[in-house]
Design brief:
By secondary structure, the protein is an alpha/beta fold. It has 9 helices and 9 strands. The chain has a single domain, classed as 3-Layer(aba) Sandwich (UDP-N-acetylmuramoyl-L-alanine:D-glutamate ligase), CATH 3.40.1190. The strands form 2 sheets. A 6-stranded mixed sheet has the order 3-2-1-4-5-6, sandwiched between helices. Strands 7-8-9 form a 3-stranded antiparallel sheet. The model has no long low-confidence stretch (mean pLDDT 94).
Length: 270
C-alpha cells in the first residue's frame, strides 16, 4: 500500500512509567516503522525495570471517550491491544472493535509482566479468549499466555503448534506463538494460519533487555499491517527488528532492561 498517505496505527494498552513497554513501547515502535501512532490508555502503572509497584485502571467512560474521539477523527488502519487489566475493560474494548469494524487487529494477550507481576485480572482471561480472540487478525501469546488461553501445557514446539491451531479454531486469523520461554540456545516461534505453519528459529541472545519485547513485537506487526503488508511478510521482519532492538539495548535500569526501539528498521518495514 503505497499511495503516499500516512497510515495510522492505534494501541489500546496500559501506560508504562518506565518507558520500555506498553503504550510507550508501542508508540516508539510505530514511529520507527513509519506509521502515525494513536493511543487509548486503559490503565496507568507505576513501574520500572525492577517491577510493577501499582496499577490503576482508567474509568470505563474515559476509555470509551478516547476510543470515540479516535473513531470520529483518526480511525486506525490497524490496531493492537496489550494490557487490558480488567474484565470490564476487555469487554468494552471488544465491543468497540466489533462495532467500529476496525481492521487488522493484533491481540497481544498481556497477562503477566516480565518481572512476574500480574497485569490481567484472573476473571478476565475467559473474556479475552471469548471476546477478543475471534476478532484478531493475529494473536501473539507467549507460552504462559498460550496455556491460559487454550487450557493445556505449552512447553515445546509441538504443543506450540497445537496451541496455535486451537487459537485459529477459536476464530483468530492467525497465531504467532512465541517461544522465548523455551529452554536451550535456540529460540523457536511458530506462525500458525488456517493454511500452514511457519517456523522461525534464531539463536538466543544473552541479554537482560527483555522488558517490553512482546509489546514491541506486536506493535511492529501492527505497523506492518497498517502499511498494507501481508502477515507472512511482516512477521519475519518484525522478529528481526526485535532482535536488533535487543542487541542495541541501552543498558538502562537494574532489572529487565528496555530494548532500543529506534534501531534502524528501514530494511524490515519496506
Amino acid at each position: 500500500m503505497d499511495d503516499g498517505k500516512t497510515r495510522i496505527a492505534l494501541t489500546i494498552a496500559g501506560s508504562d512509567s518506565g518507558g520500555g513497554a506498553g503504550i510507550q513501547a508501542d508508540l516508539k515502535t510505530f514511529a520507527a516503522w513509519g506509521v502515525f501512532g494513536t493511543s487509548t490508555i486503559v490503565a496507568i502503572t507505576a513501574q520500572n525495570t525492577l517491577g510493577v509497584r501499582a496499577v490503576h485502571p482508567v474509568p470505563l467512560d474515559v476509555v470509551s471517550a478516547q476510543l470515540d474521539a479516535l473513531a470520529e477523527d483518526l480511525p486506525p488502519h490497524a490496531l493492537k491491544t496489550g494490557m487490558l487489566a480488567t474484565k470490564p475493560l476487555v469487554e468494552l474494548v471488544a465491543a468497540t472493535i466489533a462495532e467500529r469494524g476496525w481492521p487488522h487487529y493484533v491481540l497481544d494477550p498481556v497477562m503477566v509482566a516480565t518481572s512476574g507481576d500480574r497485569l490481567l485480572d484472573a476473571d478476565a482471561v475467559e473474556a479475552v479468549r471469548d471476546r477478543l480472540v475471534p476478532l484478531a487478525a493475529c494473536v501473539t501469546p507467549n507460552l504462559d499466555e498460550a496455556e491460559l488461553l487454550v487450557g493445556f501445557p505449552v512447553r515445546d514446539p509441538d504443543a506450540m503448534q497445537r496451541a496455535g491451531e486451537a487459537l485459529v479454531a477459536m476464530g483468530a486469523g492467525a497465531a504467532l506463538v512465541k517461544g522465548g520461554h523455551l529452554t536451550g540456545d535456540e529460540l523457536v516461534d511458530l506462525l500458525v494460519t488456517p493454511a500452514s505453519t511457519t517456523r522461525f528459529t534464531r539463536p538466543r541472545l544473552d541479554t537482560r533487555a527483555t522488558h517490553g519485547t512482546g509489546c514491541t513485537l506486536s506493535a511492529a506487526i501492527t505497523a506492518g499491517l497498517a502499511r498494507g503488508l501481508a502477515l507472512d511478510a511482516i512477521v519475519p521482519r518484525a522478529l528481526t527488528y526485535l532482535q536488533d532492538a535487543m542487541r542495541a539495548a541501552p543498558g538502562l535500569g537494574g532489572g529487565h532492561g528496555p530494548v532500543w526501539h529506534g534501531v534502524d528498521v528501514i530494511g524490515h518495514r519496506s
